[in-house]
Amino acid sequence: MRTASILLLLLASASSVSFAEEPKKAPPPKFVMPPDVNGNKTVIALPENRRPIKVGVYSGPGAPQSSVDAVVRVMKPFTEATTVILSGEDVARQNLAAYDVLVFPGGSGSGQSKGIGEAGVKNVREFVGNGGGYVGICAGAYLACSNFSWGLGILNAGTVSSKWRRGQAILDLEMTEAGRPLLGDVPGVFKVRYNNGPILKPWTRTDLPAYTPLTLFRTEVAKNDTPVGVQVNTAAQAVSTFGKGRVFVSSPHPEGTPGLENLIPRGVFWAAGDKKESVLP
Q1: Contact 41, 259 (CB under 8 A)
Q2: Residues in CB range of 241: below 8 A, 6 or more apart
Q3: Are strands 168-175 and 189-195 parallel, antiparallel or unpaired?
Q4: What is the pLDDT of residues 145-188, one digit of tens each?
Q5: According to the CATH classification, is domain 42-271 in 3.40.50.880?
């Protein structure tokens, strides 16, 4: 009897071990942007020379709701700007001449291209070429480039590597001399949220002007076997023209960075500017 009891205890113990749940892996830590990342200061001042404009913000495949909401949030204080949400079908079928500027937010550039389809790509190119403004943030900056078969090809830029998963980080930016008239005279470096945005390099098209860097990365992140030493001193924000229209792109996310909330609105109002003006104010 005693032997049988011991055997039963051993079997029960073995059963409890074999069927015990494996400990769950902790999820990766969520990226948190410190509210005082820029010293609780407003780094980029309010945009000047504002006029009434109509802004279309793409919301569809390749553009997470959080990215769309971030653009809407930074544009909301400006009563001069009427913001309209556009689906992929809207971009493909509407007469975009009703808008002054189109904004393509963060997400996936190729996903956004699929979301608007070939008709949408053609419609956006015609809109900008005829004098409309384009603002692309992260994914929207990829979408503007000329080195992707799915891209808009409205910016004479490519990317330094096909390995794009560089990771999230808080990086240093510094204003260029060309950037000061558009973004303000900001001395020294300031911080910005970065999340896999394009590392831009000049492209080879002869039918488009070279882009103008407004700010430069002064630090970099290179996770997931992405190239090291290729991000520092490349353009974080840049501008150019396509036909009669203006193009403003941002690799990182100022719309999600405390102190830089006015940077994208400045880009939007600039992109909507009088096409008779020079590229930089």
Answers
A1: yes
A2: 209, 247, 279
A3: antiparallel
A4: 999 999 999 999 999 989 899 999 999 999 999 999 999 999 99
A5: yes
